[in-house]
Description:
By secondary structure, the protein is an all-alpha fold.
Amino acid sequence: MDWLQAIVLGLVQGLTEFLPISSSAHLRVVSTLGWGTDAGASFTAVTQLGTEAAVLIFYARTIGPLLAAWFKGLVNAETRRTEQYRMAWYVIIGSIPVTVLGVLFKDQIRSSFRNLWITATVMIVFAVILAVADEIGKQVRTKIDMKDAWGMGLAQSLALIPGVSRSGGTLTAGLFLGLERKAATDYSFLLALPAVIGAGLFSIPDIADTTGPGPHPSVAQMIVATLIAFVVGYATIAWLLRYVAKHSYGIFVWYRIALGIVLMVLLATNTIPAT
Length: 275
């Protein structure tokens, strides 16, 4: 991997991780268009450590009390009645589906799921689903419950397929469940932490393996790409939370549809390879 590719992909990861447009799809497409080869699922997973570090810092005042309440609640019955203790469990429970499916389908995630025909198709399909959810969702609730944890957790697991979007899947589920956009977005960010950090740490040894196909980043390139993703990701979180407080997800819906169509045209004309 050359330095320009590492820097560009770090920027792409930071810009797209929290928007409902699929960061893994963008890394896949940009890498293929710019350098003719897929940077790989492991590169994506490790750079996501940078964007999740941005979540940890941005939501530090929320995450700290959640962790404290969860540990205290393990031995203190009174703490178990608090909203923070329940929310901590909702994050853990919501992370179960993607963790289990991520382990079961590890090989497919790194190979067949990354076919660009699949990416283009799900970009369009899930754009339509997001549009429907944004239109008919009642958006009357601000509190997360067990139903939300399971529903949004299952939706998050669909993001194992590039093009679905982790945030897009969870936000869509949250809207269908009646959550307000801000509440769904906050929980979506927290929900991603266990699974994404786990996947990133799990993928570090794979990055060090230079025997497989594709570009192989150096340790320095991997660190720089992850740091760039962190800085840009932090700014993206701040912007998105302000945006969704006053606007619908319509701009992302149309962007997903346009990108999906462009991808299909490029694939149909053999401008870029599907695998």
